[in-house]
Amino acid sequence: MTLNDKTLKNDERAIFALRSLYDRYGYSRYKMNKFEEYDLYVRNKDFLISDSVITFTDTNGKLMALKPDVTLSIIKNCDDAEGTVQKMYYNENVYRVSKGALGFREIMQVGLECIGDIDDYCVSEVLLLAAESLMCISDEWVLDISHLGILTDIIDSLGVSDEQKKRIIKCVGEKNLHELDLICENNEALKALITTYGDAREVIKKLSLLPCNPKHTEELTNIAEVLESCGLSDKVRIDFSIVDDIKYYNGIVFKGFINGVPSGILSGGRYDNLMRRMGKKSGAIGFAVYLDLLEGLGDEKNKFDVDVLMLYDENEPAANVCRACARMTECGSSVTAQRKIPQKLRYKKLMKLKDGEVTVVENNA
């Protein structure tokens, strides 16, 4: 079986490609149990994509949850190891309400986490792997990067309350300049940040005019230089409307998009704050790829269930049917042999087998 195997669905091909990518960079596979104590998720429900969780009472009386997320489990089970970094990836089924869907679904999810003494290289490597993950899925992709430290630098300079800060962050995510004017005055720097978007080098030049911590600007600059050195600058944009809950995230945050999928298919960032909330001293950065969104991605292979539908009658010897099917598969075609046309089956070609001879009846290719 290869990554180009026509029998694989979009999400299945992506899983093979992503696992191979992360293996090459020395990330170890993390395997988790299907169940976790519900308390782990209810205490961090804002971190979850969906706060709907399937629960049940275990035989020992504990309320358990069918895993809606992997990152929380990894953090819970990892150790603080000073001076080292744990690099893990996962390929797990999670159980939650998917975007735009009714009811719970079992969703294949792939992602990676880098936990420990996080330095500039760790951050750059994770961003590079995020970009390469998108490349594994599509030739038409974009990675949008932001820095929550720069955003909070400017918001803190306004002297607003915590409640106003929450509202401002929401406005930034929506690029809602009108609502921003209603929340606070003297917000020119914040408006400039919201409307600053595009090529990394051009955006970073403009940051020198804003009240930002030079350390935060330098970190963004270093990442941009790494991605540029890898020939990815034309696919990377700075967009400060990429925001996440500052209770959990700090520093670099990012989202990945591919053509044909209306929402972000990849999301990640630095989440030292989440580590602290869960009693860990280490830093952490990672991302997840939402493979369920690939179901909406157009694919020529998905137009048909099978290449060839071959009809045979009850008098046709089984040996003839077997030989005819073997000839089809040896040529790389998928084939189903049937005595009648199944309802709703989508096929490229309809063929008929009679006395060992195959003739084309219909061609939909």
SSE map:
Elements: H1 10-24, E1 28-29, E2 35-37, H2 38-42, E3 54-57, E4 63-66, H3 71-77, E5 85-97, E6 104-116, H4 120-137, E7 141-147, H5 148-156, H6 162-174, H7 177-183, H8 188-195, E8 197-199, H9 200-207, H10 214-229, E9 236-239, E10 252-258, E11 266-270, H11 272-277, E12 283-290, E13 306-312, H12 318-330, E14 335-338, E15 347-354, E16 357-363
Parallel strand pairs: 1-5, 7-9, 13-14, 13-15
Antiparallel strand pairs: 2-4, 3-4, 5-6, 6-12, 7-10, 8-9, 10-11, 11-12, 15-16
Mean pLDDT: 86
N- and C-termini, Cα separation = 24 Å
SSE sequence, one letter per element:
HEEHEEHEEHEHHHHEHHEEEHEEHEEE
Radius of gyration: 25 Å
Largest sheet: 9 strands, mixed
The fourth-level CATH homologous superfamily of the largest domain is Bira Bifunctional Protein, Domain 2
Number of helices: 12
The name CATH uses for the topology of the largest domain is BirA Bifunctional Protein, domain 2
Tally of extended strands?
Answer: 16
Corresponding CATH architecture of the largest domain? 2-Layer Sandwich
Q: Count up the domains.
A: 2
CATH class of the largest domain: Alpha Beta
* Helix percentage range: 25-40%
Biggest sheet, strands in spatial order? Answer: 1-5-6-12-11-10-7-9-8
Secondary-structure-based class equals alpha+beta
Oligomer: single chain
Low-confidence stretches: none
The 3D shape can be described as: elongated
Strand content: 25-35%
Description:
34% of the residues lie in helices and 27% in strands. A hairpin with a 2-residue loop joins strand 15 (347-354) and strand 16 (357-363). The chain has a nine-stranded mixed sheet with strand order 1-5-6-12-11-10-7-9-8, sandwiched between helices. A four-stranded mixed sheet has the order 14-13-15-16, with helices on one face. It has a three-stranded antiparallel sheet with strand order 2-4-3. It has two domains: 10-296, Bira Bifunctional Protein, Domain 2 (BirA Bifunctional Protein, domain 2); 304-363, no CATH class. With 365 residues, the chain is an alpha+beta fold. It contains twelve helices and 16 strands. The radius of gyration is 25 Å and the shape is elongated. It has helices at residues 10-24, 38-42, 71-77, 120-137, 148-156, 162-174, 177-183, 188-195, 200-207, 214-229, 272-277, 318-330, and strands spanning 28-29, 35-37, 54-57, 63-66, 85-97, 104-116, 141-147, 197-199, 236-239, 252-258, 266-270, 283-290, 306-312, 335-338, 347-354, 357-363.
